[in-house]
TrEMBL record:
Segments forming domain Carbohydrate kinase PfkB: 1-284
Organism: Lactococcus fujiensis JCM 16395
Pfam families for this protein: PfkB (PF00294)
Family: Belongs to the carbohydrate kinase pfkB family.
Pathway this chain belongs to: Carbohydrate metabolism; D-ribose degradation; D-ribose 5-phosphate from beta-D-ribopyranose: step 2/2
Name recorded for this polypeptide: Ribokinase
Biological process (GO), any one: D-ribose catabolic process
Domain of life assignment: Bacteria
Keywords attached to this entry: ATP-binding, Carbohydrate metabolism, Cytoplasm, Kinase, Magnesium, Metal-binding, Nucleotide-binding, Potassium, Transferase
Residues forming the catalytic site: 242
Compartments it resides in: Cytoplasm
Cofactor(s) listed in the protein's UniProt record: Mg(2+)
Catalytic activity: D-ribose + ATP = D-ribose 5-phosphate + ADP + H(+)
Length: 301
């Protein structure tokens, strides 16, 4: 089977839980601290490798620091292939997350992720050309995404592009990609002058919009489809979108229709929101197969 390649971000999430946030010049005691691997690229790679191990190739960069080492271990533990994860002089990307008052405040330092430049690719181009699918998000430079998407198109390789977080330059990508997967909020940022229905109708079988607890919507060429989410007892929705994108990528590359791949991915994200952390709840294929909503006709291997 051909590999799936993610070109994207890798970071360490530093998560502080506190009942008070300090004012300028003030020091407070918080409640808890956790360090968990994250970054949308890495999360989507792990989501896929949980379902199909040793078939997901990660292209990205970390720094020459202890976070980089931890992240490499985490990839290997999750059966993501990291021969093309480089080490650069910048620090490993981090997200400093403060959980306060049932909400979060996040500072991202891209660090090594800003150094993921297609101008430095060498054997990476062959990896991309040999892939069944390339998966992109928006936490590495836009120029790299654009160069990868253009190269993939020239070489007949399909691209799944998750434009998260949305950037003004995203629309330059759309003609080179096969699947475009914003969430509802990103979709209205990217298409501010049209209704959701108009936008979906303009990009049939290409634009899939995730609607959180409402599910996923797309136009199938004849009509707009809305596939409902599966209700869950929610522990933490972090990573729901990454799980959905990763599982959708697996479904599509294993021959499912857009509708069936969407349903497969909805089941994966339903399982993911029931555990803490972005990667914590990402299901394995056997966990998926054990669920009553798993359909035998999917035939995922
Ligand atoms: N509360 C929930 N219960 C069940 N399924 C959910 C829930 N939230 C999200 N999902 C599933 O996950 C998919 C993706 O969620 P969403 O549209 O919120 O993506 P997102 O905004 O990119 O997520 P995040 O940024 O939190 O990772 C949804 O289409 C849905 O199938
Ligand atoms: K989760």
């Amino acid at each position: 089977m051909k590999k799936i390649t993610v070109v994207g971000s890798i970071s360490m999430d530093l998560v502080t839980t506190t009942n008070r946030v300090p004012n300028s010049g003030e020091t407070v005691f918080g409640e808890q601290f956790a360090m968990v691997p994250g970054g949308k690229g890495a999360n989507q790679a792990v989501a896929m490798a949980r379902l199909v191990p040793d078939l997901i190739e990660m292209i990205g960069a970390v720094g020459a620091d202890s976070f980089g080492e931890e992240i490499r271990k985490n990839f290997t533990h999750n059966h993501v292939l990291i021969e093309h994860v480089g080490t650069v002089p910048q620090t490993t990307g981090i997200a400093q997350i403060t959980l306060f008052d049932e909400d979060n405040r996040i500072i991202i330092i891209p660090g090594a992720n800003d150094a993921v430049s297609s101008e430095r690719f060498d054997s990476e181009w062959d990896v991309i050309a040999d892939s069944a699918l390339v998966v992109l998000q928006n936490e590495i430079p836009h120029q790299t995404n654009l160069a990868v998407a253009q190269y993939a198109k020239e070489n007949g390789v399909k691209v799944l592009y998750n434009p998260a977080p949305a950037r003004p330059t995203d629309m330059e990508m759309i003609e080179y990609v096969d699947y475009f997967t914003p969430n509802e909020h990103e979709c209205s940022e990217l298409f501010p002058d049209a209704t959701l229905e108009e936008t979906l109708t303009k990009y049939p079988n290409k634009l899939l919009v995730t609607l959180g607890v409402k599910g996923v919507t797309f136009h199938d060429g004849k009509a707009i489809q809305l596939i409902p989410a599966i209700k869950a007892k929610v522990a933490d929705t972090t990573g729901a979108g990454d799980t959905w994108n990763g599982a959708f990528a697996i479904g599509i590359t294993q021959g499912l229709s857009i509708k069936e791949a969407t349903k497969f991915a909805i089941l994966a994200s339903h399982l993911s929101v029931q555990k803490f952390g972005a990667q914590g709840g990402m299901p394995t294929l056997s966990e998926m197969k054990g669920h009553e909503k798993y359909e035998k006709t999917w035939n995922i291997k």
